[in-house]
Amino acid sequence: MTDAHAYLDTARRVVAIEAAGLAALGDSLGDSFVRAVEAILSARGRVIVSGMGKSGHVGRKIAATLASTGTPAQFVHPAEASHGDLGMVTEADVALVLSNSGETPELSDIIAHTRRFGIPLIGVAARAGSTLLRQADVAILLPAAEEACGTGIVPTTSTTMTLALGDALAVALMEHRRFTPEHFRAFHPGGRLGARLSRVADLMHGPDELPLVALDTPMPEVLIAITRRGFGVAGVTDAAGRLVGVITDGDLRRHMDGLLGHAAAAVMTRAPRTIAPDALAEAAVAVMNERKITCLFVVDPDGDGRAEGILHIHDCLRAGVV
Q1: Cα–Cα distance between 69 and 188 in angstroms, integer?
Q2: Which residues 6+ apart lie within 8 Å of 32 measured at CB?
Q3: For the chain: N or C, fewer Cβ within 10 A?
Q4: Nearest-angstrom CA–CA distance, 235 and 202
């Protein structure tokens, strides 16, 4: 067997072992998981996540996931907690403490602190009779599962299960709170994810830049309006200022014969597709791709039909939406 085959065999074995651990975790979840969710929902403060070593690394990720999905959370290192950071853990909080053995010495002070001040403690460990689970108000026992290292000493399957348990808690809380993509964006304003969750109103050009003409505007003036604004289109409004049509380069080609003798009403496409200002920019891109167009006028569906802005595909490209 070549080294390459050996590497792949090892990788597949590790993934299979950890997948079996996750399946066992899913089967084991029950009342304790429900009580953990309810304890977090009842807390007036934050979820204080703590763990030592690999459990600590997993705990940081769980705290970050909770915080980014609507559940205030903070990771507190157990060693630092013993040297003053216990002051961060208040009676309004709920503690989520992670330890595979349930006997990690560095956790003793934070466990004692929760007992002294009546702070709800959710313990996660793989040993049923461990100190952590005996002291916890809610004890979540990880199922017995083979570590993927082959020796049983390197945290692999156990940390994967703990991480998945944290994700399960976060998503259960998120769904209970009806956490939407718009809420998610409030915690993720940067990077590609933030761009994908941008609203149309964040990227559109406002009323002062709109290329708008009236129904009876002669086409020579319409062409000037299209050229001046640089979007390649013109919106057509009725006497009340409502957007009733749009003139694109396709409309110009279709009416090339005698074009300059027409008014806007004779050339425009009626009832154009528009987008709401609070729609996600990604939804606007999907409409533009579907219709093979490069611009959308922005109209509030609950408004008076007036155009509030215009969004060009280039605006989305610059923002990193596509």
Answers
A1: 10
A2: 138, 139, 140, 141
A3: N
A4: 21
pTM exceeds 0.70: no
Same domain, 75 and 129: yes
Whether the Cβ atoms of residue 292 and residue 285 lie closer than 8 Å to each other: no
Cα separation of 204 and 34, whole Å? 44
**Residue-number span of the structural domain to which 298 is assigned:** 200-319
What CATH number is associated with residue 207? 3.10.580.10
Same domain, residue pair 83 and 207:
no
* Per-residue confidence band for 281, with pLDDT thresholds at 50, 70 and 90: confident
Please tell me the distance from the alpha carbon of residue 265 to that of residue 214, in angstroms, as a whole number: 8
The total of other beta-carbon atoms located within 10 Å of residue 97's CB is 28
Give Cβ neighbours of residue 27 (< 8 Å, ≥ 6 apart): 143
Are both 161 and 90 inside the same structural domain?
Answer: yes
Residue with tokens 């409030």: 186
270 within 8 A of 245, measured Cβ to Cβ? yes
Helix ranges (H only) for the chain are: 3-28, 31-42, 54-68, 78-81, 108-116, 131-135, 157-176, 181-187, 191-196, 200-203, 219-229, 249-254, 264-267, 281-291, 313-319
Give 53-106 pLDDT, tens digit per residue: 999 999 999 999 998 888 889 999 999 988 888 988 999 999 999 999 999 999
Report the alpha-carbon distance of residue 294 to residue 69 in Å, rounded. 34
Who's near 24: CB < 8 A, 6+ residues apart?
143, 144, 145, 161
Can you tell me which residue has the tokens 């006497």? 239
**How many Å is the maximal CA-CA distance in the chain?**
90
Domain count, the chain: 2
Contacts 24+ apart (CB under 8 A), 178-184: 179/69, 179/70, 181/280, 182/278, 182/280, 183/70, 184/68, 184/69
Q: Cβ contacts of residue 160 below 8 Å, gap of 6+?
A: 18, 21, 22
Q: What is the mean pLDDT of residues 286-296?
A: 91
